[in-house]
Amino acid sequence: MRLTKQRQVILEQLRMTKSHPTAIEVYDRVREIIPNISLGTVYRNLDVLCRQGTISRIDTCGDQKRFDGTPEDHLHLICSGCGRVQDVESELDINVDNLMNIDSEFTITGVRIEIMGVCPACSTDRKNQAGTN
């Protein structure tokens, strides 16, 4: 599939950020460059880029999907408070090959590991709320 102007701009915006934006956040950024682009066009192009493997979609426990301009396998930290997603920068000793070879009647097609936690901002909010009660 060819890289249209819209897809190119969406891809550039995703690769310029580490914030793992939602489709709406991508739309807001892209509209600064292509003011007449529609939200539907952004959604469709995000879907195409995901299917091509050019970007990845991060499904975070029922919250809005987020998108990552780095399609290579890597881990994410996900805040259970606000849904913020952050790349894990350090190497973890996880043997994915062992997970792919689980003895099961399933055909394993992939492995997704989510590391859940509470980001510093939500942690501070919780401490502040606990202090006022």
Q: Describe it for me?
A:
By secondary structure, the protein is an alpha+beta fold. The chain folds into 2 domains: 1-72, Winged helix-like DNA-binding domain superfamily/Winged helix DNA-binding domain (Arc Repressor Mutant, subunit A), CATH 1.10.10; 75-133, Dna Ligase, domain 1. It is built from 5 helices and 5 strands. A hairpin with a 5-residue loop joins strand 3 (76-79) and strand 4 (85-87). Helix 1 (5-15) packs across helix 3. The radius of gyration is 18 Å and the shape is flat.
CATH superfamily of the largest domain: Winged helix-like DNA-binding domain superfamily/Winged helix DNA-binding domain
Strand content: 5-15%
What class do helices, strands and sheet pairing give?
Answer: alpha+beta
The main sheet orders its strands as: 4-3-5
- SS field, number of helical segments: 5
Largest sheet: 3 strands, mixed
Portion of residues within helices: 25-40%
Unreliable sequence segments: none
> And the CATH topology of the largest domain?
Arc Repressor Mutant, subunit A
Kindly provide the name of the CATH class of the largest domain: Mainly Alpha
What is the arithmetic mean of pLDDT? 86
Instruction: Compute the number of structural domains.
Output: 2
What is the CATH-assigned architecture of the largest domain? Orthogonal Bundle
Brief sketch in words of this structure:
This protein is of the alpha+beta class and 133 residues long. The chain is built from five helices and five strands.
Write a concise keyword list for the protein shown above:
133 residues; Arc Repressor Mutant, subunit A; alpha+beta; 2 domains; three-stranded mixed beta sheet; two-stranded antiparallel ribbon; 5 helices; single chain; flat; Dna Ligase, domain 1
